[in-house]
Structures are given as C-alpha cells and as structure tokens.
Design brief:
Number of helices: 7
Radius of gyration: 25 Å
Oligomer: single chain
Structural class: mainly alpha
Order of helices and strands: HHHHHHH
C-alpha cells in the first residue's frame, strides 16, 4: 500500500537513517539517491510504501518544524553524529519542486518507452533525473557512483545492511549504558542524603529526655 502519511515509528526510522547516513552532509546526488532508496526499502519492508518524493518532503518538513525531536533522536540513537542543517524555506521548496519536476519527467519517460533511458552511460546527475524508481526495485540495481562501491547482489546488500545495524546497535547500547550509569549515580546520591537524614533524626531522638 502506498501511503503519504507517516506513522510516528516511521518518522523515527526516517530521522535515524537520514542522520546516521549523513544525508545533509552528502554532496553527491547519486549518494543522496541511494540513501533515500535505502530508507524507502526499509519502510516498505514494514508494510507501507512511500514514494521517494514523499520521503524527501517529510525530511524537509521535520527539519523545519521538529528540530528538537530530531536532536533528541540523534542523542539517543546516533550520539556524536552532526545535526542536519535547516535550509531556508524558499530553498527547500525549490528543491522539492525540482524533485517533483524530475518525477514528472520520469513518468513521461515511462510512457514513451524504455528506449530513452541509457543508464550505462549516464552521469550521476543524469541518473538522478532519468532512472525509473520503483518501490520493489533493489538499491543494488543502480549504476555505481565513482566515489563509492555499490553492492552488486542482494547478498552484499544484506551484509551491508547487517553491518550498519550492528554498528547502530553498538552505539545505542553504549548510549543506554551511559544513561543508566548516570541514573544509578543520581540514585546513590539521593540514597546517601536520605540515610544521612535518618541518622540525624535518630541522633536527635537519642538526645531527647
């Protein structure tokens, strides 16, 4: 089912992945494309499909309206990761408008037929404009960008995702341990104060006639 609205759980996943994969720090359009496709596939695995444009729009909206929430999720799930930059509203709207025009061009190309596409010779910018994106396509089917190696088979894609999840789990576990340690230290301080107060009361009681 294709959806335009995002659940709270989907928003948490979206925020975590955009921060973890440093979408806003990435300059390559091909890399940005891969990041969005990876998030799209992860959300689709949960039973709901969202278009690439809807994901980009949602991320832009969250940055403008919910930076406090993004900061909290960053501190909990990705401690130490840089916060995303908040672009001016006009620039964000122009980016979304450009993305809409690109998707319209992709749809026109789909109607005209596959003969207009030449993914083997396309540059990263042309790939962003012309490659047809379907929710059920595997991210590893995209042509590789010069900067990074793209997994060439589902097994490599799963191994890469597994490695990312293990790293994420380690970061979350470390953050949780630190949080629990602080809570324990606070609890011990309070207990010492209470015990001291009890001892003072007992001393006063023994001094009474």
């Amino acid at each position: 089912m294709v959806g335009s609205n995002f659940t709270r759980k989907e928003e948490r996943t979206l925020i975590s992945r955009f921060i973890q994969r440093e979408y806003d720090q990435t300059r390559s359009l091909a890399d940005k494309k891969r990041i969005v496709l990876g998030i799209q596939g992860e959300l689709a695995a949960s039973g709901r499909r969202h278009t690439e444009l809807a994901i980009v729009k949602k991320w832009s909206d969250l940055k403008r309206r919910n930076m406090d929430r993004i900061s909290k999720i960053r501190d909990w799930r990705c401690p130490g990761a840089p916060l995303p930059s908040v672009r001016r509203r006009r620039e964000a709207e122009e980016e979304v408008k450009l993305k809409e025009e690109e998707e319209d061009e992709e749809n026109d190309g789909e109607v005209a037929g596959p003969s207009h596409q030449s993914p083997q010779t396309a540059s990263p910018t042309e790939m962003w404009d012309n490659i047809k994106v379907e929710a059920e396509e595997e991210p590893c089917s995209l042509p590789p960008a010069p900067e990074k190696e793209v997994p060439h088979c589902p097994r490599q894609e799963v191994m890469s995702e597994l490695s990312n999840e293990i790293s994420q789990l380690q970061r979350e576990t470390t953050a949780e341990i630190q949080y629990m340690k602080k809570r324990m230290e606070e609890f011990e301080r309070k207990q010492k104060k209470r015990l001291q107060k009890l001892m003072d009361l007992q001393k006063r009681l023994t001094e009474l006639p």
